[in-house]
Amino acid sequence: MKITFKFLPWFALAAALVVPALHAVPGPPGPAPKEAFLIPVKDNWDIAPAKPGAPADLAENLMLIGLQGLANTDGPRVYIEYPDDWHFHDFNPLKDFYATKYGVKFVRLATADAALTELGHFAKGYVVWDNKVRTSINVALTAAGVLRAIVVDENLIPLAEKHGLKPLADFRGKFTGQTDVQIYQWAYDQYWKDCSRDYLVWMGGVGGNSMEPGVADLAIACHAFVADLSASPKMPEELAFHKRLLAQLNPSAWIMGWHPYPKDTEGQWITLTSGYGLKAIGLNTFPNGTFMSQIGFSPGFKMTNNNHVTRETKLTAEKKLYICLVQSDSMGIGAWTQPERGQIPYNWEVGVDGAKWYAGAMEMFAKDRTPNDYFIGGQSGYMYPAVVPADRFPGLMKEMNALMPLMDEHTVGIMDHTDRGIPIGYFDLPKHVVDEYYAGAPDVVGFINGYAAAHTFDVRNGQAFMSYDYYLDEHRPVASAVADLDELARINPKRPYFMLIHVRESNSIKRVISIMNGLEEKPEIVPLDTFLKLAASNPNFAPRYKDPKPAGKAWDATTQ
Asked: How many CB atoms within 10 Å of residue 485?
């Protein structure tokens, strides 16, 4: 989740008089404000009413999130309060943490009218999207960043004008009957020259009559071009336009948001972006990015992990079954707030970007961790290393090595899904990628790879490179999962046996504990750094990499 803006100190009176600069300026995060506005949004993300006469709350939500982007462009002034079941539900306690630990006093603006009364001066006008053409929302967000405007549908025009705002663009009826490519081509011709080359926002996720634009504040603050073009070869015109945008971004650019579920797959999208050496931060539901990214750790705080070994530690594995449990997919959408956390060793794949994207959240997690919680690092952003251009890889490793100490992280998680031959994905790595990680990260304890089970293994200079043995799907019945793991233990009779399990984030910890308790052979459950050191001491595996000549055709981002 890596944008920071140059921080200007909070002066409540000055904030009411100063319109922010037109461009967000990346820089180091600053201290927390003494005061900030808290604005709630409604738990209804339908573009058009489900029933005649029902409210279309998406329009108001979108206006408020966009207003947040305007107000937060040069300082953290506005925090949006999302519903309890918002995708990043583990971030919901963060507001209270900012208040108690950072001393932020939140002033609630309970209505859109109140929000515009306090913050309308940050806008130069309003942009109208067409509630009959979904894609017009993305064009309106692009225009709003360039023109410094709020985004409204026709029903909110009277409210905008009540607060003295004038129309700057009106897309009602403009795109009727047009394809997405035609619409985005118009937006490109009109606004691309004024859009950032460091940030591109992908407003994907759910489609149809819904949109969940949590990342819209970042889009507006960063002057980002907003789109949801496909990465699938089944939509060649959209794919070609998609590539055209990616090719014009700066080498260090970020793609914020998520791919559109109705148009392509996650694997297609990240393979494409990785082929240009670009990093993605998900999801489209990522909340309060402009607020969190401008606030660093609290004074005197230093991030620490529950490290059990160092790079030089020597351990000796016994003849037993060792299990390591890893939850991926970020801290914000997992099981962190569940009461069973801490009862068994659990490993959380955080990534290195937490120190910059959401330092306050990481401080909250660190202070709340138990002795059984361990944080895993990895390269910056979401990328598939097998398709990253060779000249970009060293820079990514340099960035990772610079950020991992800020998080006190010493193990690296890797995922690569660039082969379309298997529905769940093919996660093995070619030898040259393994070589690049060993060369680029010589000081880490070790590496893990995969998502579903994979078969890439190695040990060099005391650093184990392990792949997942099992993917624990949240829908797999407990008895079936127990039977699966028992079978894995039986078909790998040599001890020690190191079983690495990926726990899909939707699994509850209580469920995982019940599976562990049901195993026929009682394992020793260990944290990842210990697991990797034990595996390096007595590996029950031989070095193995992805077949350089696979039976299926690999995905090629540069030629699709």
From this structure: 24
